[in-house]
Amino acid sequence: MQTIIQKIKEECSNLIENSTLTKELNDIRIKFFGKSGEFTNLMKGLKDVPKEDKPAVGKMLNDCKKNLEAKLEEKIKELELKEKDKKLKEEELDITLSGKREDVGGLHVLSLVRNEIVDIFTGLGFTVSDGPEIETDYFCFQMLNIPKDHPARDMQDSFFINDNLILRTQTSSMQVRTMLKQQPPIRIVNPGKVYRVDSDATHSPMFQQIEGLVVDKNVTLCDLKGALELFAKTLFDKNTEVRFRPSYFPFTEPSVEVDVSCPFCGGKGCNLCKGTGWIEILGAGIVNPVVLENCGIDSKEYSGFAFGMGVERIAMIKYGIPDMRILFSNDMRFLKQYK
Ligand code: PHE
């Protein structure tokens, strides 16, 4: 019996020492100390030990069991600690790692400039309207005093969809639509995309326009100049000056090209204004009475002014951007400057 106890003791002790997982130790507990484990069986076998040896064998068996159980518990604690440490290490967060920064979006420089322009005019009591980009020849040209085959059509080389439909070349079509619906007083701005067959460093086949229209009693060229002067001073600089040069548009009479004193050199002459001190920003004029009559507005009672500008051109002047194409290039290095 003693030798058996000794053997089991060694076996159990070795197993405990060599285990590396708490799970293995649990198996050992069941195998040796469980209900039908080795030690339980040995206890049962005690009854066959000769009476005189019983106390000694019993004590040996008890001591051995107690020692091994203690050893097992100790090893369990040791392994539990190790396993916990390992888990903690695995789940450890490195709070020194730099985070990923999400890029915050911003408005495109053209949207910023468009909003700024629209804000100036809404501040003067204008309302904003927009209409279809696919427009009829009738609204885009004929109603604006540009009949079919009129040479003035050359000023706006157009994308035709068919004989009657085009991609609008100017947002002036919206002025017609508004005048047909509404009697004066009218005070509107029309921001929107327009399309022309044109492409180089200062022209793009698609660009944005903002046109304005005022129709009321006694509207004169002075009102136009006053409104545009306030616009230019607000958009560029309070010292900006505005000048009119005679021009021609079929829908305005008289027609003018509007220049502002160069915002970069203050009018002294620099590269951007090609030494002239002036930069052209838009076309304008007094609404041709023919257009008013076309829209059912009495041209003896009412008069109006209209103007139209390209948003890209204004943005290029405002920020000294030399090539229009960069506005459409989606280059973040460029766009980020205008957040
Ligand atoms: N529609 C003209 C253009 O696109 C601009 C303009 C508008 C001129 C209103 C005069 C009056 O060129």
Task: Write the SSE topology.
Elements: H1 2-18, H2 22-33, H3 38-45, H4 54-90, H5 109-123, E1 127-128, E2 134-136, H6 137-140, E3 165-167, H7 172-181, E4 186-195, E5 206-216, H8 221-235, E6 242-249, E7 252-261, E8 278-287, H9 289-294, E9 303-310, H10 311-319, H11 332-335
Parallel strand pairs: 1-4
Antiparallel strand pairs: 2-3, 4-5, 5-9, 6-7, 7-8, 8-9
Helix pairs in contact: 1-4, 2-4, 5-10
Structure notes:
With 339 residues, this protein is α+β, with helices and mostly antiparallel strands. The protein has helices at residues 2-18, 22-33, 38-45, 54-90, 109-123, 137-140, 172-181, 221-235, 289-294, 311-319, 332-335; strands at 127-128, 134-136, 165-167, 186-195, 206-216, 242-249, 252-261, 278-287, 303-310. The strands form two sheets. A seven-stranded mixed beta sheet has the order 1-4-5-9-8-7-6, sandwiched between helices. A hairpin with a 2-residue loop joins strand 6 (242-249) and strand 7. Helix 1 (2-18) packs parallel to helix 4 (54-90), helix 2 (22-33) runs antiparallel to helix 4 (54-90) and helix 5 (109-123) packs across helix 10. The protein is rod-shaped. The chain starts with a helix and ends with a helix. 29% of the residues are buried. Residues 170, 172, 211, 249, 252, 283-285, 306-308 line the site of phenylalanine.
Main attributes?
339 residues; alpha+beta; seven-stranded mixed beta sheet; two-stranded antiparallel sheet; 11 helices; 40% helix; rod-shaped; binds phenylalanine
